[in-house]
Design brief:
The protein has 12 helices and 6 strands. By secondary structure, the chain is an alpha/beta fold. It has a 6-stranded parallel beta sheet, sandwiched between helices. Helix 9 links the parallel strand 4 and strand 5. The C terminus is likely disordered.
Length: 240
């Protein structure tokens, strides 16, 4: 049932948009996210002590970044700059791509579909990882976090809109593969499709409830579905 559903979704897709942290890379596998979050909280505390104290309450670096604008432009810029450096450092020690990720990227590329990475992580972080593992040739566009604009991160649709523009593919013909509810929400806002990647226990129900068109538990399911679509050019040739 799952294989049939994902084949239907991807068969109607001209561009595959991959979230980065989860489907492609475990960004903070080598440098734990809570350590990065504490460093960012300390950075924020140097600008605004009370806001920094609040930031110490989260173990998610992205949540610290979302708090930073409350401390003013200078605080936002310092936290953003520190997060970019931490992300680039983290992916260098993150290890190999997620199981099945390379196969999924290769299958999307060879199927004739456009491929983009659409991430709340920085573009520098994504590009560093792709280059490190020799994957850059499989990706047509990298759309990372808009600098100093945390409000534009998913679930906001901004990054998907940018990817659609760079790929010259309407969002109705795009499918986002992501492991979080915010990915699914962003895709729904744009009218595009989404494949939920339940890489941890308990995610399947949350992703399905959020509105994912199909939920998979391995990136190999994405790779297999795309591999079987190589001889179906009817969708990918539209509008070319």
């Amino acid at each position: 049932m799952e294989s049939s559903a994902i084949a239907d979704v991807l068969g109607a897709t001209r561009a595959v948009l991959f979230d980065f942290d989860g489907p492609i890379c475990d960004v903070f596998a080598g440098q734990p996210a809570h350590d990065v979050a504490r460093h960012l909280a300390a950075t924020l505390a140097n600008c605004d002590r009370s806001l920094g104290d609040k930031a110490y309450g989260t173990e998610d670096p992205m949540e610290v970044l979302r708090l930073a604008p409350q401390g003013g432009e200078a605080a936002l810029r310092r936290v953003e700059d520190e997060l970019i450096k931490a992300e680039v450092s983290a992916v260098r020690s993150a290890g190999l791509p997620v199981s099945g990720a390379v196969a999924a990227l290769e299958a999307a590329h060879t199927s004739g579909r456009k491929v983009a990475i659409v991430s709340n992580n920085s573009a520098a972080c994504v590009r560093t990882f792709l280059l490190l593992h020799g994957l850059q040739h499989l990706v047509d566009a990298v759309v990372g976090r808009a600098p100093y604009q945390p409000e534009a991160m998913k679930p906001a649709p901004d990054s998907l809109l940018r990817a659609s523009s760079e790929l010259a593919v309407p969002l109705r013909d795009c499918t986002l593969i992501g492991d979080s509810v915010t990915d699914v929400e962003a895709a729904r806002v744009t009218g595009g499709r989404s494949v939920g990647f339940a890489n941890k226990a308990g995610k399947e129900r949350a992703l399905a409830t959020a509105g994912a068109d199909v939920v998979v538990t391995t990136m190999l399911a994405v790779a297999d579905a795309l591999a079987h679509l190589r001889n179906r050019p009817d969708v990918t040739d539209r509008g070319r």
